Amino acid sequence: MSRKKEQTGRGRRRAPGRRRVPAATRPQIFTLAALLVVASLVAGYLALSRPDDTTPTAASGKGGKEPGPTPSATAKWDGKTHVLGDGSTSYTGPQQGTLKPVPLKPGEKPPQFVVFSWDGALQGDDHLFSHYREMAKEYNAHMTFFLTGIYLLPKSKKDLYHGPMHEPGDAAIDYPTDEHIRTTLEQLRLAYEQGNDIGTHFNGHFCGAKGGGDWSVQQWKSEIDQFYSFVENWKTNTGYTDIPPLPFDFKKEVIGGRAPCLEGQPNLLKAIKSYGWRYDASSPGDFQIWPTKKNGIWDFPLEMLPYENGKFQGLSMDFNFLYNQSGGETDGDPAKYAQWEQQTVDSYMAGFNRVYYGSRAPLFIGNHFEHWNGSIYMKAIDRIIPQICTKKGVKCVSFRELADWMDVQKPSTLAALRSLDPAQSPDWSTIAK
Q1: Which superkingdom is the protein from (predicted)?
Q2: Range of the domain at 225
Q3: Is residue 64 situated within a structural domain?
Q4: CATH code for position 249
Q5: Contacts of 202 (CB under 8 A, 6+ apart)
Q6: Interhelix angle 372-388/128-138, nearest 10 degrees
């Protein structure tokens, strides 16, 4: 059943009955329970199972490129702005202000990377896109904003969208207002200029039956091609002549995404290799361990964090807190808002501290621009960013920056990092050699 997203950028979605699974722990080295309820944002939740063992196995995934669209050709920049296509986008040179990736020195402790990411980036009436962009700037952080393609497509042109397995114009979310297209374009420009990562949340946000989990490789490619079409032709589709081109080339800068409802990653990974993408954040969930690759693509999943003082493990996303605290109801008992907000903060900080004082595995936090349960999940993020991003050794980065850093490390260093349990603090002289 489709559920529409409000024009403010908030989603109202229900979930099935509550499930909790206790976590298993042991002193110093942390292992996690085998089952977890995972957010599936419209259709409900997916079940995840994994043996009680946090020792990962590296996977690089080799193979030739499939034929298909490729990123725009890279050439030495001449210092001039190059307007592309119909004037919707432009090339203004390499993105400035991003983290310079360097290999770890022998014996060096890795940074504590933390990635805040946002699904469906839309500047709605609540101005949450601009709020978190400004917070990132204030705390010397970068974030990943996953743009939904139809958020740059006027409702009057909705028939241009042909979602796989759906009728033209169909979508499980609302099309934006004209004003929200304008404000979203402005935030995309500013976000990019400030060093943030622009990824994709694809288009129609279909879940469950006929959603991404049912799509073939070719259908995923159709969804990706349409995303590019909408973002590269917004001037043609809107008729706006008073807005400058976005200062980046989407085919150069979009190198990853997160699938709606975390569905369909196996075929999605096969589809995206021909586009030159380098990471995917669509995995339903994993332990707090150093990432590996799937099919040659960096796999950046949501992570299992201690909920309610470690009673069980839940995913690092606002919807999962909503599901466990109010059964998926977006307007739960107001008398519990303060308690739930503190529980959310405590879970984020427990997950952070587990790796900050342990393996230094990256912490991935995924959220939406929403006001569920009195905006307590937004308030929780507002509280943890100043606590986390200001700590010694912490780098709050985008998924793109993390992929860049991972790519320059020695394979032996990455293998050693992946052998660590989340709370395991090793002799760092044995990791980077």
Answers
A1: Bacteria
A2: 98-430
A3: no
A4: 3.20.20.370
A5: 148, 149, 212, 223, 224, 227, 257, 259, 260
A6: 10
Two tokens at 246? 């976005």
- Asked if residue 38 is part of any domain, the answer here is no
CA distance 101 to 175: 38
Question: Could you report the per-residue pLDDT of 31-66, keeping only the tens digit for each?
Answer: 222 223 333 333 333 322 222 232 332 333 333 333
Tokens found for residue 326 = 């109010």
Closest CA to 231 of 91, 84, 89: 89
250, 229 Cβ separation under 8 angstroms: no
- Asked if residue 91 is part of any domain, the answer here is no
Model pTM score: 0.84
Residue 143, Cβ neighbours under 10 Å: how many? 25
Determine contact, residues 326/312, Cβ cutoff 8 Å: no
Q: Which helix (H) or strand (E) holds 199?
A: strand 197-200
Residue 271 lies in a domain: yes
Q: For the segment 233-283, what is each residue's pLDDT rounded down to a tens digit?
A: 999 999 999 999 999 999 999 999 999 999 999 999 999 989 999 999 999
